[in-house]
Design a protein that fits this description.
This protein is an alpha+beta fold and about 200 residues long. It has three helices and seven strands. The strands form two sheets. A five-stranded mixed barrel has the order 1-2-3-5-4. It has a two-stranded antiparallel ribbon with strand order 6-7. Strand 4 and strand 5 form a beta hairpin.
Length: about 200
């Protein structure tokens, strides 16, 4: 017969494995020495001093240019989450070029998709963004991972309890579920309109 203590240990071990699986870096962009990876901002400011060092960078694809024997991807850089996925926001860190020694299909690797790279830092290159002359940090990719688009979960929380119950913190009775989640789905394919 299992004791309560044994069950707690089994539960804790199971939860640790589940959490470890959720936050692990994909094999394609994993690194043997995570502490030695040079961040994008460091490479941007130190330039040639960090050439040859290992790095893992990511962001959103801005452009894909296939050459005869390699592909250059222009990436809008964003900081990475623990598991290597770019944390896309309205504040980018800048841009970088990722050199991949392979053909990359521009119809699959479309502008706006999130991607992460691991590899070594190459020599910075100058280029233009419209008329602005920009110095790109470069990563010579040994691995890359194209992330699936994140699905936005839409739900609304509806509280069916009476107003007096919500503010009566010392009440010993809890007859209402609080809060109740109601899934809202728009199947028309068009953005929902505000009914204000």
């Amino acid at each position: 017969m299992k004791t309560g203590f044994d069950m707690k240990i089994i539960y804790a071990a199971t939860m640790a494995l589940v959490l470890a699986g959720c936050s692990s870096v994909p094999e394609q962009i994993a690194s043997e020495n995570e502490d030695a990876l040079v961040g994008y901002k460091v490479a941007k400011h130190q330039g040639e001093k960090v050439v040859g060092d290992s790095a893992r960078w990511g962001g959103v694809i801005a452009d894909v240019r296939n050459a005869k024997d390699h592909t250059v991807l222009e990436i809008v850089s964003f900081p990475l989450k623990r598991w290597g996925r770019p944390e896309v926001s309205d504040n980018s860190q800048g841009r970088f070029l990722a050199v991949v020694n392979d053909f990359v299909d521009p119809d699959v690797y479309k502008a706006g998709r999130s991607i992460s790279f691991v590899g070594s830092i190459g020599q910075p290159q100058q280029g233009k963004i419209d008329e602005y002359i920009y110095t790109y940090p470069v990563i010579e990719a040994t691995g890359y991972y194209l992330w699936q688009p994140e699905r936005k979960k839409s739900h609304a929380e509806v509280d069916y309890s009476p107003l007096w119950f919500r503010h009566n913190f010392y009440s010993p009775y809890y007859p209402y579920r609080y809060p109740v989640r109601v899934r809202v789905q728009d199947k028309s394919g068009t953005p929902a309109k505000n009914n204000n």
